[in-house]
Amino acid sequence: MPESIDWPRPHSPRSRLRRRVLIILAVLAGIFFGSRTALSYYVDMLWFASLGYANVFWKTLSLQWGIFAAFTAATFLILFGSFLALKRAHLPDLPSGHTIYIGGRPVKLPVEPVLRVIALVVSLAIGAATGAGMMAEWATFALFWYAPRTTVGTLDPIFGKPLNFFLFTLPAWQLISGWLLTLAVIAFLLAVFFVFITGGSRVLAGRLSRGIILPWRGLSIALAVLLLIVAMRVYISRFEQLFEDHTIFGGVTYTDAHVTLTGMLVVCFALVLGALIAVVNALRLPRGRWLVAAILPGAVCYIVFQGVAWYVSGFIVKPNELVRERPYITHNIELTRQAYGLDRVAQREFPAETTVDAADPANNQATLQNIRLWDWRALQDTLRQIQEIRTYYDFPDIDIDRYNIDGTTREVMLAARELNVNKLPESSRNWINDKLIYTHGYGITMNPVNGFTPEGLPTLILSNMPVQSTVRDLTVTRPEVYFGELTNTDVYVKTRQKEFNYPQGQSNNLTSYEGNGGIVIGGFLRRIVIALDRDDLSKLPFSDDVTKDSRLLMRRNIRDRVSTLAPFLTYDPDPYLVLGDDGRLSWIMDAFTSSDMYPYSSHYPLQGDSVNYLRNSVKVVIDAYDGTTTFYVFDTEDPIIAAYRAIFPDLFKDAATMTPGLRKHVRYPELLLKLQAEVYGLYHMADPEAFYNREDLWTVATEVGMSEEGQQVTQAMEPNFVLMKLPGETGVEFVEILPFTPANRNNLIGWIAGRSDGAQYGTSVVYNFPKTKLVDGPLQIEARIDQNAQLSGQLTLWNQQGSHVRRGALLVIPCGRALLYAEPIYLQAERSPMPELRLVVLALQDRLAYGPTFESAMAALFGGGISSLTAQAASAPGNDRRVSPR
């Protein structure tokens, strides 16, 4: 019996058999896992093609897998090539074998073949992981490749580079340099490993004679490569100083400009010098001490310049910080305003007068007639009680828009009645109901923002099933909602099974899908593929109701739909519903291009990311019936969307091609206004000294709101859409407004308005209040309401009679030369989730009025009437200033 078992040699019959078995297993594994991926890609291709975006799918796929293949292959070749080169350099010193014990029996492993197998597997694994990681960054490489090479925008004030260098070129450089640095570190560690296994430990211990060639050659070359890559990374890091956020401002500081940037350049040269020393050490008789000498130049330069930067910052800049940093603060102000579009904001003065005459009600009837008294949360709860009809319907959101009603533009609130299959009774939850019958929601509701019945319920313009309209010009021709905010399941349409449309007395109204949306099921093979991909293998292939002409509607949630088509865009979380002139329902979503690489611009959080550039470049329209999804470009000056249009020319259309019926409903997006307001609170100060001292810092005004538990909380105000006549303008506009307060104060200091109509679309204006005048903020008006003896007494009484008071959002609305405050107050029974309007509170700076209806509150405020809690509101006789909006 032999004392040990020798591991099979690489070219022995046993070794060849084992290799074949491993190859067969690898192929089978690839087929098993790859088949599911291939099926998924095939169904995705069908889905993209059904929307007319097959070219988008293939372009994205080619970019992703091209990047994956390139980086996987390059990573594998570099790592495995490094192993082979180091192994060859150290081959004479490699031990011939190593003995291990398995079950008490010694097994002799040949070192070189085992190392080669390990290196092969590890290199493949790292290559695949690297390829997958780079594949996720396909948009960065695509922008770098397709972006225009011409100069875009102004040059940055430090390096003189154009904007497209920072938006498109630098991000790709960062990814590639990070990738190369990782490979260089791995190769260096591999060289260190070879030094130790070939007797490097003895060399370090000094137990080899001076005549033996030391095994430092491979390590020297690996170190030289590593130092060169680090030098490249340091050079690229110089540009990244433009994106650094500091305590006072963002971008390059005085110390950076005079010390750090120069120091980083010197460190680059020192690292290159160190690489040359390492190369010379490899070509000559290698010595370990020269490796230390190769690292020293870069390390010494880094330490020296860090010390110099500390001295300049502490002893030159800090004592005279404003003087030293003034030009760099100016750069930060100018470029931050450009990055967020604040350089296009017009500024005007607003007197914020306090008298009734200043409100000028006679000339601001359009504003007064469209004051929103329905709080959207209260309206949502009410609609769920009076318009859901069946428990499986829901109103997930309330949207605010403007429509022409009987020849007058009115502000209204809309809600889609969507089907929530999770609310179906458990006894009816089966595949046929979920996939074939209950396929869509039905209809919408519409009501004026201040329309109430005598019972305190909304005055509905559109309601019920089938949809009934009280306005001749508003009709819904396609009320079915197959695509929406709650449509999270796949369904099959155009089947032999009739679809539930809406309840109708003792029976149900049934329908069949007539659109062209979705994927055609086709023959048996395609049906099997779709069933496998959608995890429907036990039902779909065997269903007699689903025919070859049936269609699969998938990705029906509009957020999922648009993010799959264009994942490189950022979307407003609040899509809104539009009723077109043709009676069809559509969803509009605002889409944004963003970046965190805009030079000298400060970063702000946006949906979990940090950005320093934002543009509302795209409006996405999704048809609620057939799912047609169209991307319209509204900002042709945005360089990022121009680059994406070059990549996907079939995906985007010009804004001019949008139908007039949809175009008149586009709006200034909430997400953009909220971020701009946050940035403007600091960056409205264009003077560097005022900016440095934070002399005039603004914040978005706060209000009293309701938490999910029903408790009152103080929170930042949300943007409010108002149909009004802006001060200094003649026409009525649909604008989005948000008031400002000074930092840590409750009084108002100004307000910003985003404009949505006509030629003014996309522009914004800020109205500044006189700084010598105290203008009440929302919290102060709330306090005045609470301090009113009659109001507070009535609210306390209501809260003790089996009901509770629900206060709507306080609106701050510019009216004439004054500010008008409006707050609806609802009464809600404890056993009923349906609130009813019971009071309307209106206020000016020096006057507060209220009444059980909007008309009575208006009469008390403007007409000289007496505020009352009852329906019989007294008014001053003979007063010709009475206002009665219709």
Structure description:
- This protein is α+β, with helices and mostly antiparallel strands and 886 residues long.
- Strands 4, 27, 30, 31, 32 and 33 form a 6-stranded mixed beta sheet that branches. Strands 19, 20, 21, 24, 25 and 26 form a 6-stranded mixed beta sheet that branches.
- β22 (604-606) and β23 (609-611) form a beta hairpin.
Topology summary:
Elements: E1 5-6, H1 13-50, H2 54-90, E2 97-102, E3 105-110, H3 111-135, H4 138-146, H5 163-205, H6 217-240, H7 254-283, H8 288-317, H9 321-339, E4 346-349, H10 356-359, H11 365-368, H12 376-386, E5 393-394, E6 399-405, E7 408-416, E8 418-419, H13 431-437, E9 441-442, E10 444-448, E11 462-463, E12 468-469, E13 480-481, E14 491-493, E15 499-504, E16 507-511, E17 519-520, H14 524-533, E18 551-553, H15 558-565, E19 570-571, E20 576-579, E21 585-595, E22 604-606, E23 609-611, E24 613-623, E25 629-633, H16 639-647, E26 652-654, H17 660-663, H18 670-683, H19 688-693, E27 698-700, E28 702-706, E29 712-716, E30 720-724, E31 733-742, E32 750-755, E33 764-768, H20 778-787, H21 789-798, E34 803-807, E35 811-815, E36 818-829, E37 836-844, E38 847-851, H22 854-862
Parallel strand pairs: 1-3, 4-33, 25-26
Antiparallel strand pairs: 2-3, 5-8, 6-7, 7-10, 9-13, 11-12, 14-18, 15-16, 17-18, 19-21, 20-21, 21-24, 22-23, 24-25, 27-31, 28-29, 30-31, 31-32, 32-33, 34-36, 35-36, 36-37, 37-38
